[in-house]
Structure formats: C-alpha cells, structure tokens
Amino acid sequence: MNRILIIEDEEQIARVLQLELGFEGYDAKMVHTGTAGLLAFHDEQWDLVLLDLMLPEMHGLEVLKRIRKHDEAVPVILLTAKNEIQDKVAGLDLGANDYMTKPFEFEELLARIRAALRIRQRANPSIVTNEYRFLDVAVNEDTREVMRGKTTIDLTPREFELLLHFMKHPKLVQSREQLLDAVWGFDYYGDTNVVDVYIRYLRQKLNDKQSPILHTVRGVGYVLKEPANEA
Ligand code: CA
C-alpha cells in the first residue's frame, strides 16, 4: 500500500484528500503546518508527498528544500493557489515533480499521483518484477504497470487489486462475495454492488468490448477467460 503524506493547512481540503485517498487504497496522513510536515516526513516512510505552499510556521518551498536535501527520489506534488505562479516555478526548480492548482478535480490529482508513483518505481532498478500474463494482458505486481497489447492501462489501486486477483486466478469463477473478501477485505461492510461497479470500470479501461476476457457468469459472479466463441 502506497503511503502519502498530506501537508496542507486548510483542514477541510486536507480531510477530504485523506478520506478520498483512503477510498482509493492509499494510506494517507495529514498534517497542517510546515514544521509538522517536515517532522512527519522524517519520522516515517513515504511514497509520495502532497505539499501546500502557503503554510504556517514554515513555507512550503522551505519544506521542499529540506525534503530534497535528504531524499531526491520521493515524488512531491505541490498544491498551489492560482496567484502563486512564481512559487510554482521555484518549486519545480527545487525538485517538485508536479503541481496542482486549487481548486482541482480529484480525478486529475489521482492520475498525477499514479503517474508520479510509476515514474519512481521505474527509476528503481532493484525492484524484482513479478508479472502475470493472460492473453494480451500483462500486470506487474511490483511496478503496478498494466498493459493490454501495447497500451498502458491506468488503474486506481482498487481496480488494480481486482484485476491482479483475476490474473492470479485465471479461469476460476469468482462470486461477488469472494471478490469482496479478496480485494476489499473481510471487514468491508459495503454491499456486493461495489464489485459490479468496479468490474464495469475495469472493462471500460481494458477496452473489453473488443475481445472480452472479463466474463459475467450469470447468477454466480465473474471469471477471467478467453473471449467466448460465437456459438
Ligand atoms: Ca495553505
């Protein structure tokens, strides 16, 4: 599970971010001042930092400078206001990977987080690859890259876990309850409709209409298998 540190003094924004990132399968923690952010950064291991610029106690640029002194690799995405153009430029010069201008669409932030994490994982050659293939689909558990044919597929963490589960158990019919347990965890009290919703997302992203591999087994659940022959 990727860990994200949110350094943002607007508590409302920080709380929504933490909640939404949690829903997407990230382990997110928030702090509200520059100094608290720096302390949290050094106290724990982080895969990515979301950094507001206008922060009490220590400006975001100073926080960034100090983070980069110790860690050149951790992806940092700046959360900036419209009128902070100079600070954006300075932040990128100081080694920020990306920035989002507030107010932003959460979906776009998610895409940028995924992109930043992918680049970081690619840059780390020590990762041993753990790849699953089925027909033209390839899923790499370590780099979390998904390909269909030559197309890279961008999945949220939850979508990824669901596809990975199918890739590890090809041709095995799975009930919604089994998928819930495997992907959402035993303590997930939602109803099983969430499985149908995520299957729909996966099918869309995998462009599964063309040659479907995620099949519905009526009254039972779902299965990953070859496209059915026209019978
Ligand atoms: Ca602020």
Give structural attributes.
5-stranded parallel beta sheet; Arc Repressor Mutant, subunit A; 12 strands; Rossmann fold; 2 domains; 4-stranded antiparallel beta sheet; 231 residues; alpha/beta; binds calcium ion
- In which order are the strands of the major sheet placed? 2-1-3-4-5
The major sheet is characterized as: 5 strands, parallel
Written as H for each helix and E for each strand, in order along the chain, the element string is EHEHEHEHEHEEEEHEHHEE
Shape summary? elongated
Small-molecule binders here are: calcium ion
Individual helix count: 8
Query: Remind me, CATH topology of the largest domain?
Result: Rossmann fold
CATH architecture of the largest domain: 3-Layer(aba) Sandwich
Helix vs. strand class: alpha/beta
How many structural domains?
2
Name the poorly predicted regions: none
| CATH domain class name of the largest domain | Alpha Beta
Overall mean confidence score, pLDDT: 90
